[in-house]
Write a structure and sequence with these properties.
By secondary structure, this protein is α+β, with helices and mostly antiparallel strands. The protein has 2 domains: 55 residues, no CATH class; 32 residues, no CATH class. It is built from 3 helices and 3 strands; from the N terminus they run E-E-E-H-H-H. It is elongated and about 55 Å long. The chain starts with 8 loop residues before the first strand and ends in a 7-residue tail after the last helix.
């Protein structure tokens, strides 16, 4: 199984570009929160978008580990239809035959 950077992740602005004439643009990153040591791991650097779009995308990506955990619990503890939907979503993240 392919491993991903363990969660939790957080969305944060690590760069602000631009100037008072052209306007400022925040560059959103998703980083690992509990990475051992003094360094954080950048999970994603989002392309420059208007701030509200970049922030929304970063927050959605940062929620991925929690969403995966919730789907795994749904697939175990709920009825067959809900479990099937959750299992399909999990398979998109954790394929049965990962590429080496």
């Amino acid at each position: 199984m392919t491993k991903h950077t363990p969660g939790p992740w957080k969305a944060e602005v690590l760069e602000t570009v631009g100037n008072s004439t052209s306007g400022f643009l925040h560059r959103w990153f998703v980083t690992s929160v509990d990475q051992p040591g003094p360094w954080t791991t950048t999970v994603a650097r989002l392309p420059d978008h208007p701030n509200h779009i970049g922030e929304a995308n970063a927050r959605l990506i940062a929620a991925a580990p929690d969403l995966l955990e919730a789907l795994e619990k749904i697939s175990i503890y709920t009825g067959s239809y809900s479990a099937a939907i959750a299992t399909e979503a999990i398979a998109k993240v954790r394929p049965a035959d990962p590429v080496a």
